[in-house]
Amino acid sequence: MAIGIRSTILVMALLFGTQAMAYEEPTYEIALVTDGYEVRRYQDRLAAQVSGSSATNSAFRKLFKYISGANTASQKVAMTVPVAQSVSIEMTVPVVTSSELYMQFFLPASFTPETAPVPTDPDIKIVNVEGGYYAVLEYSGRSTNANFDKQQRILVNSLERDGVTQKSTPIMATYNGPLTLSFMRRNEVMVMIDWRSE
After folding, report:
1. Cα 132 to Cα 79: distance, rounded to the nearest angstrom
2. Structural domain range at position 22
3. What is the DSSP string of the chain?
4. Res. 11 pLDDT band, cuts 50 70 90
5. Region 23-46: what's the mean pLDDT?
6. CB of 56 within 8 A of CB of 78?
7. CA-to-CA distance for 52 and 10, rounded, in angstroms?
């Protein structure tokens, strides 16, 4: 099931323009660079999330309204990248996770659970995105489900080849809007993994 790519594109065009370089990104440490992917260690992060049946065409608009001031403090929240979302795909291997669909805007690192503005939309929850090790495959091109599905299969096959255990289904991370030239777009497939650094 699609996450409403077409309706999301219009909002993303207004938001992202042609570049994402001005937006805050989560920090991470690179644990390993290998053939086909890299292993990154992220800390816990806060995100505004729309999930379940609400994670459809309206998810991006709801989240954009939240950072534009639709919260109890009427506070504007700086946009960050990437926009992360789950995508309904056929998995070839079992993983320990929920199949619930969601879309997330990460909050700037300056916010804590106590200081994050409270959404006025009940469909939006402030969640803690668990830190840990993620296998990440970066790719360019259009941010479509078909392109993502092709890339996530490459990543999953690489993890299977290397005997790495997945702890989540693949996550789509999008950094640029649709006005960015296709070959200049940055997208990622992210999978939380069971990883021992030593």
Report:
1. 23
2. 5-194
3. ----HHHHHHHHHHHHTT--TTSB---EEEEEEETTEEEEEE--EEEEEEEGGGSSTTHHHHHHHHHTT-BTT------BS-EEEE-----SS--SS----EEEEEPPTT--TTTSPPBSSTTEEEEEEPPEEEEEEEE-S---HHHHHHHHHHHHHHHHHTTPEESS--EEEE-S-TTS-GGG--EEEEEEEE----
4. very low
5. 95
6. no
7. 22
Match 């994402």 to its residue by tokens: 20
> What distances in angstroms separate CA 49 from CA 54, 62, 190, one per listed residue?
10, 9, 17
| Domain count across the chain | 1
The pLDDT of residue 98:
47
Q: The domain spanning residue 109 has which CATH number?
A: 3.20.80.10
Q: Which residue has the tokens 């709801």?
A: 62
Residue-wise pLDDT for 69-121, tens only, equals 999 999 999 999 999 998 865 554 444 444 578 999 999 999 999 999 999 99
